[in-house]
Write a structure and sequence with these properties.
The complex is a heterodimer. Chain A is an alpha+beta fold. Chain A contains 10 helices and 18 strands. Chain A folds into 2 domains: 221 residues, 3-Layer(aba) Sandwich (Rossmann fold), CATH 3.40.50; 101 residues, OB fold (Dihydrolipoamide Acetyltransferase, E2P) (Beta Barrel), CATH 2.40.50.100. In chain A, helix 2 packs across helix 3. In chain B, helix 8 packs across helix 11 and helix 9 packs across helix 10. Classes of the chains: A alpha+beta, B mainly alpha.
Chain lengths: 357, 303
């Protein structure tokens, strides 16, 4: 990624590694360089154990990197303890103080920093308003639902007006409906306060929906950094193509036979058109013949697994525009022609780590 | 027909009896509970509380001043008047309560860092070793430990020998501070273990959250750790306080001083049971007061 035009980045990581245990153990974070712009909603996306949470914890100051430097707004904070860093964290388990009321929890950071009590009251009220928890001041965390605790945790962090807010899978424990609501709300709050958000998640849908930019983590390294559409439309590696959305990965002989090229490629299942074997193929299109092997009805769309006549399977998804569920399911065993635009074939790097972040 | 039927007819009948009992208990859960608890509750009610009641009654019975015999059901407040009018008794009572408080505070101060290290810093191996080290003294006899302290504290004992090069004499065996030191030593494990358990229950993320919000170590301890440790401190202090309050061997053997227990012992040895009983009510009242105060502080809210 290039230099930012916004001046000093909110966060800059230089060659960060983190090794837990002995040198023989695999590194949790194996060399990361990253710049997050001021005011950005930036997601760290990856499967569990990919190093994203460890990276967040190093930014917060809970872990010390084995090597590398961390800069917050240009200041080297690598050696500073958490309480001397101008960042706040929303924890995965919320980490609310059980012996304090909601208002006391939210006021804690202000009290510690000796903000006068009159100003404290105003700011706590404002923070609780922002997360729509007015009137809950005197409740204990144990008397709140999961979603409400989540909001208290958010208010407790935001009330300190940090320059960077770190969120560690904050919606992970909520059910789907609530999670979708909170996604929209978090995004709205972020644009209201204008604080840089660093958001750790393993949910690619969430990262795509909310982020200005995201970094895809795999095995302690960053495989790709970019805007959601960029990462989705142009995945650089097989891992990114498979983890962000789903993809048909095509390599070696299959690539030669199907695409007439050698290398590693991917095609998104929704970019493939399903048609009659007699359908014409355009000049700018690839095509293959096969039979429908499996039909999975998903409500809004249907997923087909096609056994190609030349060998191998391809996954195709189609919007259920006209078909009903019965029609879709009855398609099993039918001979079909698959066509896709040449431009929709994604070219992947051979070695994932040859991609520089 | 009747011969082959005999044994077969017997078996189902027997089975059905045990089955009937089982299913009756199954249908009457409260009766099951009562049957299970009858034994232990009977023991506590009759033997334990009953003997306490007899003790309480003794305090209100008169003693024949000529024969020295206790006269049951001859009600009087003589024993209490005798205690209240004698300043020696109030001195002893205050001394006992004071030392018990001092021992409790000392044990809290000693136990906190040890328990914190065990619960949050030590590796699992070290934690196991420390747990053994903390509980090991409990395996040794109480008297052996007190006599060991005698050999340490007496004039020509270990402490005297170690302090001699500095020109300081050993404390001897008539200092009241000895009782404080030895009682603090004896009851320390009872303070460390509940605090350790209490600290282990506090999730690490709470401490991280406090640091994240700007709290340094002292602030985190005062505002986050300590309030959540109050139940553990109450549990530990009930042990150290009540055990110190009831002790009469330590003050006698290492401090040459009298505690409430010594007064009770001496009076019952003289056959003056009403005074012994009246005086033994004092620690009970003090402990009830102490429990009420700790409950007020919310010590049992999370139990």
């Amino acid at each position: 990624m290039g230099a930012t035009s916004h001046g000093v980045p909110a966060i800059r990581l230089e060659g960060i590694t983190k090794q837990f245990g002995g040198a023989s153990d695999a590194a949790a974070v194996a060399g990361i360089d990253l710049e997050v712009r001021d005011g950005e909603f930036f997601s760290l996306l990856g499967p569990s154990g990919s190093g994203k949470t460890t990276t967040l914890r190093m930014i917060a100051g809970f872990e010390r990197p084995t090597s590398g430097r961390i800069f917050l707004h240009g200041e080297d904070v690598t050696d500073l303890p958490p309480f001397d860093r101008d960042v706040n964290t929303v924890f995965q388990d919320y980490a609310l103080f059980p012996h304090m009321s909601v208002a006391e929890n939210v006021a804690y950071g202000l009290e510690v920093r000796h903000v006068p009590s009159s100003e404290r009251a105003v700011r706590v009220k404002e923070a609780l308003r922002m997360v729509r928890l007015e009137g809950y001041d005197s409740r204990r965390p144990a008397q709140l639902s999961g979603g409400q605790r989540q909001r208290v945790a958010l208010a407790r962090a935001l009330v300190n007006r940090p320059r960077v807010l770190l969120l560690d899978e904050p919606l992970g424990a909520l059910d789907l409906k609530l999670r979708e609501e909170m996604q929209i709300e978090l995004k709205a709050i972020q644009s209201e306060v204008g604080i840089t958000f660093i958001y750790v998640t393993h949910d690619q849908q969430e990262a795509l929906t909310m982020s200005d930019r995201l970094a895809v983590f795999n095995r302690g390294r960053i495989e790709q950094i970019g805007a959601p559409a960029e990462v989705y439309e142009h995945p650089l590696t097989a891992f990114v193509a498979g983890f962000v959305g789903s993809s048909n990965l095509i390599a070696a002989e299959a690539a030669q036979a199907l695409l007439g090229q050698s290398g590693r490629f991917a095609i998104r299942p929704e970019k493939i058109r399903l048609g009659e074997p007699t359908d014409k193929v355009g000049a700018d299109e690839h095509s293959a013949l096969g039979k429908i092997k499996t039909v999975v009805y998903l409500g809004a769309e249907t997923r087909f697994i096609i056994a190609l006549d030349m060998g191998g399977d391809l996954m195709v998804t189609q919007q259920n525009l006209k078909e009903s569920s019965m029609e879709a399911l009855s398609a099993q065993g039918r001979a079909v022609r698959l066509t896709w635009k040449r431009g929709h074939v994604l070219t992947l790097a051979d070695d994932p780590h040859a991609v520089s972040a | 027909m009747s011969i082959p039927e005999g044994p077969r007819a017997n078996l189902p009948q027997r089975r059905s009896l045990s089955r009937r009992v089982t299913s009756w208990f199954n249908a009457h859960p409260r009766a099951t509970l009562r049957t299970l608890l009858a034994g232990p509750l009977g023991w506590i009610g009759l033997v334990y509380l009953g003997s306490l009641l007899v003790l309480l009654l003794h305090a209100f019975w008169a003693k024949d001043s000529f024969t020295g015999k206790v006269e049951p059901f001859n009600w009087t407040l003589d024993a209490f008047i005798q205690i209240a009018s004698n300043p020696v008794y109030s001195t002893i009572a205050l001394r006992t309560i004071g030392i018990a408080l001092l021992v409790t505070i000392t044990d809290v101060l000693l136990a906190l860092p040890i328990a914190y290290y065990m619960a949050r810093i030590a590796s699992p191996r070290k934690r196991g070793l420390l747990l053994v080290a903390v509980t090991m003294p409990l395996w040794a006899s109480y008297l052996v430990k007190v006599y060991a302290w005698r050999t340490i504290l007496q004039g020509n004992g270990f402490l005297g020998w170690a302090l001699a090069p500095f020109g300081i004499e050993g404390p001897g065996l008539s200092e009241i501070t000895n009782a404080w030191i030895v009682l603090s030593y004896l009851w320390l494990p009872y303070m460390i273990l509940p605090i350790y358990a209490g600290l282990e229950r506090i999730p690490n993320s709470l401490l991280e959250a406090s640091a994240d919000l700007g709290g340094r170590a002292g602030m985190t301890f005062r505002r986050v750790i300590f309030p959540q440790l109050i139940p553990a401190l109450a549990a530990g202090s009930i042990f150290t306080f009540s055990l110190s309050l009831g002790d009469y061997i330590v003050p006698d053997l290492v401090a040459d001083a009298k505690f409430i227990g010594n007064v009770i012992y001496d009076n019952s040895a003289l056959g003056n049971f009403p005074v012994a009983a009246a005086f033994s009510i004092l620690p009970v009242v003090v402990m009830i007061g102490y429990l009420l105060v700790t409950r007020r502080l919310g010590a049992f809210d999370s139990l």
